[in-house]
Amino acid sequence: MFQREMRKTTLQSAIATADVIFHASVRNVRKSHGNAVVGLLLNILQAVLMIAVFFLLFELLGLRGSAIRGDYLLYIMSGIFVFMTHVKTVGAVVGCEGHASPMMKHSPMNTFVAVAAAALGALYQQFLSAVVILYVYHAAFVPITIEDPVGVMSMFLLSWASGLALGMVFQAAKPWWPEGIGMISQVYMRANMILSGKMFVANMMPGYVLAFFDWNPLFHIIDQGRGYIFLNYSPHYSSVSYPVWCTVAFLMLGLMGEFFTRKHASASWGAGK
Q: How many Å apart are CA 66 and CA 199, to the nearest integer?
């Protein structure tokens, strides 16, 4: 009751916040399974199954000839990893604790920490899964060569950042319409199975087909990422600047929405979560 409050410097506050984010990220990673290793293995299995499904789909539909000249399986993985990172981050941020969550009653916890922890937990799982799968494929099956690893990593992080920004928009709007926003976010994530364009190459698309995908920032990220992976592919119909500006715009909208929602937060919203 009678405690003297010690003032913290900016550096001390930053370290304390980072510590809370770390522990909250560990908690988010363990949500899928009590054992973190098993949870990671399940995530790897999900990615492998998706790669296998798309490999068989390409074979059955005869789409192998439309792929980029180079390692065929690496072409499929280049789309799958970026797609999964984006949608998993959106899902993690939308599903993180909101203003009415009991966790917010603890003083170090706030929505910034919850969002950061959810996003970092998703990034950790997806990055580690991609590294493990690529290493096993490289060591046990076919040696792979990535033309520009730095460019590929930047596109991977951009897919994560765009998922974080869009997830913040959904998360800020969710308390006002929980069922509707949850449904819209699920439709968005499911629709990106096709609309992300991970099965197609932008340079080979007719103009009227390209118009169906060109609006999607994830389509540009995947296409640009393939340009960094393969020596024989140079993207002409996608750009890096478009998804970057979309990410900035969504991030600003998400921050403004979160601020507005926090000002009008109500404990009764917990029933709708």
A: 9
